Amino acid sequence: PRIMIVDQGQIILDASQGEILSRFGRQRTLIVKFRESVPEIEVREGEIVKRQANDLWIAFDRDRISAFDLIRALDQDQGIADVSIQEPDIESIVAQIYEHGLEGER
């Protein structure tokens, strides 16, 4: 589907949902579940945004590192039990565009 974003009466973006997700949705979140508590680890190509019990949330830019490479860098015998990837949804991307404008591409 096509999406038009209107700001102050002007169309600021007219693109397909896929184009918008590709252009503005580079930031992903890797959720790592450990068998035991989260170990002290350093993430070079991402940012730890949350730690809770056995879970760790890492925000990363898909254009800088793939999820596979990030998982591989973490799994140095750290006891990873499971991983999942959270993609940005179109609603949060549209909100980001309204908040930061088109220059806020991430």
Structural features, described:
Strands 4-5-3-6 form a 4-stranded antiparallel β-sheet, covered by helices on one side. A two-stranded antiparallel sheet has the order 1-2. It is built from 3 helices and 6 strands, in the order ββαβββαβα. It is elongated. The protein is α+β, with helices and mostly antiparallel strands. The longest helix has 11 residues. It starts with a strand and ends in a 6-residue tail after the last helix.
- First and last CA, distance: 22 Å
Enumerate the spans where pLDDT stays under 50 for 5 or more consecutive residues.
Answer: none
Series of secondary-structure elements, N-terminal to C-terminal = EEHEEEHEH
Strand order, main sheet: write it out: 4-5-3-6
Mean pLDDT across all amino acids: 89
Query: How many β-strand runs?
Result: 6
What is the count of DSSP helices, taking H or I runs of 4+ residues? 3
Radius of gyration: 17 Å
Largest sheet at a glance? 4 strands, antiparallel
**How much β-strand is present in the residues?**
35-45%
| Classification by helices and strands | alpha+beta
**How would you describe the oligomerization state of the chains in this entry?**
single chain
Give the helix level as a range of percent: 25-40%
Shape: elongated
